[in-house]
Amino acid sequence: MDTPLVLKILYSLISLAVITIWGLSLGGIVRKIYARVQGRIGPPFWQPFIDIIKTYGKRTAVTHGIMFFLGPVFRIAGGIGTYLFIPAILGSTIFSNFSVSGDVLLVMYFIFFGQLGMALGAGESGHPYSAIGVARGLAQMTAFEVPFALSIIAIVIQYHTLNITTIVLAQQGSILNWTLFTNPLATIAALIALLGMNMHNPFSVVLAPQEIPIGPPTEFHGSYLALMQTNRGIFNAAKLVLYMNLFFGGATNIFALIIKTFSIYMISVVVGVSFPRFRTDQSIKFFLFVPTLIALLAIIILVL
Amino acid sequence: MKKDNRLLPNKDMPDFERDYFCDAHPETVKPLKGFIEKFLNWARANSLWILGFGTGCGAIELRPLMTARFDMFRYGMAPRPTPRQSCVFVIGGYASIKTLKRIVRSYEQIQAPKFVLALGSCTINGGMYFDSYNTINRIDHYIPVDAYVTGCMPRPEAIIAGLRKLQELIKQGKAEKANEYIENFEWYKANQKKVIKDWNMPDYNW
Amino acid sequence: MMKDILKRLTEKFPISEIEEQRANMIFVTMPKINAVQCISYLKQFEGFTHLVMLAAVDYIEDGIFQLTYILHNYELHTDIGIRVQIDRKQPVMESIHTLWAQARTYQQELKEMFGIDFPGSPDIDEPFLLEGWQNIPPMRKDFDTLKYSQETFFPRPGRKHYDPQKYMKEKLYPDKEPE
């Protein structure tokens, strides 16, 4: 409010750059960990950056229409939008982004916005595998949205606010003030939904490189793909920052942010390396049963 | 850059399919100058995305590259399931005419800069299938090849060595075969059409 | 067991030649006109319910194609092969896709590789492996595959040929006299 808008935009850009680098490195680190678990040396952790430079450096590109252009743009708009309305670090002017202008509902909208844009873009590419991937992705997304939304409702009831900054502020003081301990059921439900959101192994049927070449982005190449790769970094980190804020007491400095987001990400990585893949109908059944019931229970307990 | 206004004839395509493909002649894209190209070449060399074309016995030798024993990921190589996103096309051995058609199609769908690594003596001179009625003798008359790996069949170590050699070529800026293909487009097309008798695809598969 | 089947077969069909390869594998040769009838009989009444394969051999010297149908009986664990010789100039044979649906693939391949026609077999004129083949069928013995390859496929100059027997002798046993 005191900060002029220009300065605020500049700060947001800095914060966005930092989170992009962190998100991409996180992906690289996880690939490295995967490799070490499997007894390989693995790619260097900066491999995602090289990949992105290379994909941007492609000389030719073809297009399939307007939505094909807009699909990756929507996707990255979803990622950036998600991040910009979350306060990344509590109390920091640079990393507070535009969190005063939006609440948790807007962030939820942005999380799903990118997927829908992607669905339209992939649909126009005309590749049959894209269509299969989109159908699977949207079905699965609708399923994990239910426990996610329910656990958000539980938190909103608990803190009587939609403002993320207020929710983070309420969790300060002691580790026992975290939502993880004050409302464990909602946290568990939301973390299960995060597994679906991250599309790691039990719920990776959307991309499934072994069966439908790579799902929705089959036809995307060059700069389109590079945009989507960049977004993967931003969006991943943004989701983790949101979860950190809602359930794990937020962060007061950048090291806390890095440690906490890394730990949250490791949950889905550990689940990912230890479980095989669900079919779409199985994952929908799972999401609509276990985590949904847990989240409902959380709400019922709070209301009572 | 001069715009190329030539159109491809696409003689073998029926009229009702004309709307579904592009008639334009492919164009060469000159590499950038100076250190930018060097930097991009470094990135290209360290992020080889492989489209493994599982023809012949080479396919079985490509799989071990992913395992802990050979681990191509440490050099930044990764398998990629779709031609659109990959940049190295690995021809895994003998190519029959039916396969050659798919090879040409996939090769043209890869976006430049693209590199081809051909495995085994079958791709070099026909190998033990040199007198077969259905197997082409040398792949470099149909698509340009950057590096060959000899052997029948080369072991995974040899394939890794070939890929490392390809990385060197890319870093030195010598792997510009994608432009060569466009420059000698008519020659390559004539060769392809000489063996692929039922040409029922566009002249250039974008 | 096999003897009984053979006895019943010889009573019913004009079998010209019997070759007992093993105790549980025999080959019988019969005229083209009786072959499908015989196969049908074996399938329905003798329990040979499995079509193992259908293959052809080109005997260019005799001017015939020899078709071999191999059938398997699961209960007796026996195989029977029915050999049919058809004229090379008019290579037409009755289709057995009505007995085994998968026979269409064999027949499609035979049509493509040898030019043996099976009227009525589904997709018999569709290309199986050779798309757009314009020459004589390549598995026929009068088709010179080396010449075709050299004319069509741009052979790389510098290929050397060795006689395997001589080459191995020179490399591995240079002192040993040939036996």
Model description:
- The complex is a heterotrimer of chains A (about 300), B (about 210) and C (about 180).
- Chain A is mainly α.
- Chain A is about 70% helix and about 0% strand.
- Chain A has one domain.
- Chain A contains eleven helices and no strands.
- In chain A, α1 (about 5-35) crosses α9 (about 220-245) and α8 (about 185-200) packs antiparallel against α9 (about 220-245).
- The longest helix of chain A is centred in the N-terminal third of the chain and has 33 residues, at about 5-35.
- Chain B has a five-stranded parallel beta sheet with strand order 2-1-3-4-5.
- Chain B contains seven helices and five strands; from the N terminus they run αβαββαβαβααα.
- Chain B has a domain at about 45-65 and about 75-195: Rossmann fold (3-Layer(aba) Sandwich).
- Chain B starts with about 35 loop residues before the first helix and ends in an 11-residue tail after the last helix.
- In chain B, α1 (about 35-45) packs antiparallel against α5 (about 155-170).
- With about 180 residues, chain C is of the alpha+beta class.
- Chain C has one domain: NADH:ubiquinone oxidoreductase Nqo5 subunit (Beta Polymerase, domain 2, 2-Layer Sandwich).
- Chain C has five helices and five strands; from the N terminus they run αββαβββααα.
- Chain C has helices at about 1-10, 30-45, 105-115, 145-150, 165-170; strands spanning about 15-20, 25-30, 50-60, 65-75, 80-85.
- In chain C, β3 (about 50-60) and β4 form a beta hairpin.
- Chains in contact: A-B, B-C.
